[in-house]
Amino acid sequence: MTMISSKEKSLAKRVSVWLWEEDYPHSLNQEELQTPALVLQHAFSRFSLADCQYLLWEWQHCHYRPFAFSFGDGLPTLFRFRKMLNKLLDVAWLMRHDVGHRHLLGACTMDVAAPLFDSHYFIALRKEHLDDIGGVLEQMLHEGQGAHGWKNVLYHWWGMGVSHAQLDDGTRTNPTDEIPEFISLVLMIEIQYVIAMSLKHKPVENQLSASAYLSLEEGEKPLKTLMKIFSKWEYEELKEKLRDAYCLVDYGFEEYSLGRQNGLVHTQHKIIALASLLAQKDDDYFSHPDTFTFGNEEVGNFWEPDHYIPFHHLTKAEYDDLLTTLRSFDFAELHRQLHRYVVFLIERNRVGLSDEVLLAAELFQQLERLFETLYLFTVQRIQIND
Known about the structure:
2 domains
């Protein structure tokens, strides 16, 4: 671990401030104010990057689902995570206001940061951001009215994560506010992670998540998880809902209709993540008898004989070699395009023909291709034990 010299310590001091000076970094103690690298070290020694992405993703969707936050130790995990995010916001505030903190950004050179970017999956961070990572972080704070504004967002989300009374069917909470907030907060986390790793902090293993969109339990048995999704929503129903989501491009959306689609978008990300895990498995995994063998109680009513199997998008060659087809998708790009599509809907209620619309058409064609590939791949191999 790189040691921080006394010359590199912060110039900030714990001082008395008026109560309305709310952007002061109140969550940091004297040692953390002087050496904020300690905050980054502590944060990413408790949660990996994938854990942070996953916890934030699931937390933001708590109010659309029939249970409160239930990952890790439940609310204690959420409390520790929220406390950590408050500290990261205060470190971001310090880097914006305290010139003495430029040593944090000074370690994050393109030579160091580019390999980190290439070896990790980032939801919001782009490679071009690495040229001015401090400026991107400052813009993120500015858009949320400072660190205090973002802490208010976390306070609002806290209520969604802890109380069943906060559950929403899409008629109360406005996701047009929350989805951009999610993108900005995950961008802040990813920037702080790159800075932390640039300071030679040791990354930790994922404790709670298999990916940014899957828990460890979901990722350990991706086929079982996928089949549970297909048993909850019939294949044709899932594709119909996907087409409804795409039609928002042509017809715009009413104030609350995007809220009703938000759970579907959440599911799409999980399906893409499951496909990505399967594509990374070696050939022996798919030849093992236990891989595709489950009991009825494990998967529910997955497929009935009278359900025909359409393959509208696959060529005969793709149909004949579904494993190769599965490995041909760019899963990270599908995730990014799906996020981009939702943000696009938020920013413009009614749209005409544009590059964004054409990109959306290509995205949804690829999602349908992926659905067909996964469904066919599974039904051709599945064995259900009574």
